[in-house]
Amino acid sequence: MMKKTYLYALILLFLAANGCKKEIDQDPHDGIPSEDAFITPDDFTNAIRGAYSSLRGLSYYGGQDNDAMTSTPDVLSDNLVLNQQGRHSQLKFYTYNYVSTDTWQLWGNAYRAILRTNFILANIDNLPDGDFKDNVHGEALAIRALAHFDLLRVYAKAYGSASDADLGVPYVTTVDFNAQPSRTPLKQAYGFVVTDFVQAIQLLGSNNGPGRIHKAAAEGLLSRVYLYMEQWQNCVDMATAAIDDAPASNALATIDEFPSIWTDETERDVLFKIRNLDADDDPIGVGYKQGTPEGVLPEYSVDYAFFQLFSDDDVRKDAYIAQTNFNGIDYNYVYKYNGRPVGDADVVDIKVIRMGEVYLNRAEAYYQLDNDAAALADLNTLRSNRYAEFTDGTETGTALYNAILLQRRLELAFEGSRFFDLKRLGLPIERSEFGDRADGSGIPVPDEAATLPANDPLFQLPIPQAEINTNPNIKQNDY
Amino acid sequence: MKLKLLSILLLGLFAVSAAKAQSKTVSGTVTGKTDGLPLPGVSVTVKGTTAGTQTDANGHYNLAVPAETSVLVFSYLGYQSTEIPVAGQTTINATLTDDTRQLAEVVVTGYQTKMRTDVSSAISTVQGREVADRPVPSIDNLLQGKAAGVQITSENGRPGGNAYIRIRGVGSINAGQQPLLVVDGLQVPDDVAPQFYTTINANDIENVSVLKDAAAVSLYGARGSNGVIVITTKTGAGKDKPEIAYTFQYGTNAKIPDNFKLMTTAQKLQYEYDLGYENAEITSYLGQNNFPDGADLFNITDAQRQTVWDALIRQSHNWLNDILRTGKIRQHQLSVSGHENKTNYYVSFQMFDVDGIVVGSDYKRYTGKVNLSTQIKPWLSLSNNMSLGHKKTNELRDVYNAQNPFYAIYGYNSYEPVYNPDGTYNLTVQGFPILEALKENPETQRFLSGYNITTLDFHPIKGLNVSSSIGLTYDDYKRAAFIRPGSILDQYIGDPTAPGSKVDNGSTEFAYDWINKAIYKFDLNTDHHFNILAVQEFQKDQLDSYGLEKKGFVLSDYVSTQDNGAANTGTNTTSQSIWTIASLLGELDYNYKNKYYVTGSFRRDGSSRFGRNNRYGNFYSASLSWVLTNEEFMKPLTWVNALKLRGSVGTAGNFSGLGNYQSLSLYRFGTYNNLLTAFPAQIPNPDLTWEKKLKRDVGIDFELFNSRISGTFDYYNENTTALLLNVPVSQTTGFASVIKNVGAMNNSGIDISLNGEIIRSKDLRWSVYGNLNYNRNKITELYNGATEIADLNQLGTVKPGYAINTFKLVRYAGVNPETGAAQFYTKDGEITEEYSGDDAVILEGKSPNPKFFGGFGTNLNYKGFEFSADFTYTLGQYIFNYNKEILVSWGDQVYYPQAQEALNYWKQPGDTNVLPKPDPNNFTYDTDYYLQKASYIRLRNVTLGYTIPSAITQKYHVRNLRFFVTGQNLLTINPNNFFGDPEVGIGSEESFTTTIPGQATLFAYPTTRQFTFGVNLTF
């Protein structure tokens, strides 16, 4: 009897040990092996959406109040004044006090997007040839180019002021987890951006729906790249292509349509935007203001000098700016990201390239090509769709140029353009002496941050220290 | 392969059982010498054989003994063994003398129970009574200062909060650093352990063993390297009569006072004026009191300004009083235990409520326990230990903003009223009224945690036990966070068209642990003693979690289920993950004449967590000890009661703190535009395996002068290799880091514990104890080519040659006496006014790791009175004091309250040793100015008790009636004048990127002080 017991005990042990062996292999329930991730067309659709979603990184287009493509370049420039009652977010950018350990963290965010495109591109031949493959291929290339271009705008010198020796950012085109690339020379890197966009334009479909890059969007983005590179004829050609190829639904918004752009009720004007839904839990507008029970509390007020440049019949004025009274004080604040008619506050899609900008790109390029007439025509097209009481302007020469730059500043206000425009134009940042209040009183920019001389090293943001620490081949900016 | 070994071993054991002969029966009664009462459960054995029995509840035994038997050995826990010659007698009564020697105690080593004399490893033991009846519901916190080499740091002062447990220093950088928890033989999964520490009732604990060296932990293989905490719960064995015990405790819970002062309202207003800041209260005062348009603080007359200030001073108040409160503590506990026939039982119930020091941090717990063991047949026994606890807590945000009440108390200015004139909450300069949020944004967490372990134990022949145990651990977590519609937070972040939102999330973690074990004890003639252990074990853990969120709720306190939300926010998630570990292990103990002990152990583990290339690992240990006091030449030294030298070497691993699928190349899924996305989730590493630790230890155990002085001394040296590091990679790869087995570190140090019984008389007993650990941590190697890993919190570094997390900061060089500008040292020691993160240097010798820690205390008993005091201390650690940086700023915090210290700033040329000239646009940089030494000694617990003489209580059929009062955290010695409380766990759970215990302060839940009164009543 007892012997039997031993026997059972032994059998038990053997069974247990054998049963356990296969249990040592456990596969996850929330992921698939990378090698199985690019088999069907749906896999590629998922992956390309994954690439778009990475553009919404919290230090990239999805940024809120730390660093954000939608607000940081405006904080860095002359469009905004710190609101004294706000939370003093982005103060380091406002006062040019950034250092490598506390800088714009775009770096990691943008390269994450680049990795996602490179994974797709490395596997693209798993798809059968055809429109689907070409379109996904084009989207991946365009996202890769856009991310590199954004990195160049932030961390490298302006193309126009750069020498051949000046460094850009590493142009990454492969999936390599051990890579420690050095900085691609700036002009070469811009060249790669152009190459990727050009190839993308050949591959992309004409309409991929909201939230995806289509042919005209890539053309519009490339017109911007050419503008930054001061390749005026290319810029004109690309802008023209964008205008010609854009679906009717993305044509230049009229005065009536314009406000709906910012509530996502129209696709007019919007060549490419990053979708940002309530479920994404990313209230990008809080970089500019928060709703509070005592009224809207701005983080930054609209600079009063800038505010006065918006005339009352400019549809952009009310679309972009509103007034609040907080603790008895009136402020002009950025209303542009207030949210949709229904849904979470401060959550809207993030506009990356609009038709309005494409016209301005072309106008500026025409002007540089001494084609004042064509420049004026584009400018008037834009202005007639923005001002209620507009009769065609007749500017020429410097007046025309200034009018183009003014319209660019107004049109792209609070859209992450101003700092980069001043930088590429080789202009200083000269902030007004107005304070944060609606009438221009209040506390202005501190003296030490009132101006940033043209081509100052602070125009190149420090590369995050984490990259310097891990990659000996990266040379830090002289900030 | 290993199985074969095991079966050979078992078969070998059967052979031994063959010989059996018997001839006569001896019986008798065993009593205790002091009280003369019968002793149940005494082991009666025939000397030199394995034959034996135990006394029953009446102290009676019957034992069939071989004819040639000469001597019976009577042994019992807590009593000295007695040998009595048989000499033809058939009735032998024995009287046992209490044994006060430490080495006589029983030590639970996890897989088995041994006499301390027989153990050649470093194990500290804490008795249940040392943690009983404390007003603190977390066992981990209660162990602080009790065991040498065990550093316990409270996460923060939250009721029911957990503690960081580090045995013999920090043993890992990124993997788990907590020891393995074993409860009643059951290995508790690492992420369930924190709930066990806070839901198991400390009063149910019989004892806690802390396994420290290789000889003790190698048996736990891949999970043992951080040490093992073995909790054994009460069984009821040894109780001669059923015992019903009731305990009641009631008391208060309050914040310990700050050691700094905030500016008074008048000081603050002047400071704001001097810095050119007009606060909103002033602005609205000017607007409402007929000042001309454009009037501001700086263009009105001095007299007008004073009027404004006076108005603000009149309305000022102390936010501490508005936000904090004194909480109540209530505990009821009932237990019934005893020994009936062949069954031991212990049943208990406890209710434990601790109110936090703010609304919304309450802790309410119910626990129940049933431990049963019974002898079914002479060769078969069954035991089942079950414990179930439910705790409900309210949660607060632990973040650096006014959503955290412990920042809010320092974040609202005294002149800002709680309410607006219309009765609504004042948003204040922080823009957020925490008092409203505590009511309108309730967050509750509920945990249901418990375990059950069933063991069937065969003991077919004397000395052999074969058992199979199935242990289950269960942890269910449910969280509900409701942002009520219309609440201020809702107005900030909610959807105006669908107000109110609610998150329900939670998880269930279930594990089973199947342990098959054989233990065989035998002697070869009288001098050679063997103890063989063989175990096969398999554990599987599954964690399932979910998260639901909706918005658009009805404005009501009661309608808050997900069904009442109007719209999904789209963040509905579930997840599932599984890990397994399969093990074979064995241990052999041998001793010669109870003088020379040799122990060897081996374990092989395989786990699903690791890469396909490195899935299995072997662990071993060997140890030796020599009991000198059993040598003839020591006999003349009668004042030496016990002296043992021991040494051990061995290996263990660390598999905790890692994701379950971390080695794999994975694509995971998300959404974009409400459609599915796929993206690469991590850099794969098929070589991923456990961290390996080589542990070496030599120690001495001694008892002197009639065992009045006893103690242990250990020197240890532990090398960890294959450290799991999140090796940062160039972010151009698309990732920030990859986890790899690289790097090595060393911990070496000493553990000392000493106990002294200064007075040991019938009426008066006075004893003292103390323990100390000195540990030196050094990183010895990082990954290929890397010289340093930056800390993600940007405060410290991990660099070979330095202690882990040594601070690396820019050095502050005081003010420029001419201009009042802040100055810093560059890397090269030059003075500059330009702050650059690149100028951070390693501050050797300054790290969050203490140089010394431990505890000491005393116990005094006089007749019915008893007094005990327990101190804990931690010396030599440095802490980055963000609280100070924020409250003693360089002007950028002018909007918020400041400590009076902030007034000591540069005012005129020539001023030195002052803060820089303050300016709202300054930046108070992280420099070593805010790094402070944080040594402290804290009077952790004082208990004063009185037991009514039993002569009185027995008239009322009460066996024992005791009244007691306790005080927790009554006194803190802060020799370095640390700004705030020097006992720091995690500064802010939500605001730091990584958790490095004791690295920095940031408005955590403060340490609290408890006073309680209690009664123990035993029938």
TrEMBL record, chain A:
- Give the transmembrane ranges: none
Every RagB/SusD domain range: 348-478
Keywords of this entry: Cell outer membrane, Membrane, Signal
Which SUPFAM superfamilies does the entry link to?
TPR-like
Q: Where is this protein chiefly located?
A: membrane
Q: Please report a single Pfam family linked to this protein.
A: SusD_RagB
Q: Does the keyword Signal apply?
A: yes
Which cellular compartments is it found in? Cell outer membrane
The UniProt record lists the keyword Oxidoreductase: no
Q: List each copy of the SusD-like N-terminal domain by range.
A: 72-227
Signal peptide coordinates: 1-22
* A GO CC annotation given for this chain: cell outer membrane
Question: What InterPro entries does its record include?
Answer: SusD-like_N, SusD_RagB_dom, TPR-like_helical_dom_sf
Give the family, as the similarity comment puts it.
Belongs to the SusD family.
Q: What is this protein called?
A: RagB/SusD family nutrient uptake outer membrane protein
Q: Which organism is it from?
A: Mucilaginibacter limnophilus
Lineage of this protein's species? Bacteria, Pseudomonadati, Bacteroidota, Sphingobacteriia, Sphingobacteriales
UniProtKB/TrEMBL annotation, chain B:
Record carries keyword Iron-sulfur: no
Q: Name one Pfam family in it.
A: CarbopepD_reg_2
Q: How does it sit in the membrane?
A: Multi-pass membrane protein
TonB-dependent receptor plug domain segment(s): 118-228
Q: Which UniProt keywords apply?
A: Cell outer membrane, Membrane, Receptor, Signal, Transmembrane, Transmembrane beta strand, Transport
Its GO CC terms? cell outer membrane
Its chief place of residence is membrane
Gene3D superfamilies in the record: Carboxypeptidase-like, regulatory domain (2.60.40.1120), TonB-dependent receptor, beta-barrel domain (2.40.170.20), TonB-dependent receptor, plug domain (2.170.130.10)
At the top level of its lineage, which domain of life is listed?
Bacteria
Give the signal peptide range: 1-21
Location in the cell: Cell outer membrane
Q: Which NCBIfam families match?
A: OMP_RagA_SusC, SusC_RagA_signa
Q: Which family does it belong to?
A: Belongs to the TonB-dependent receptor family.
Q: Which protein are we looking at?
A: TonB-dependent receptor
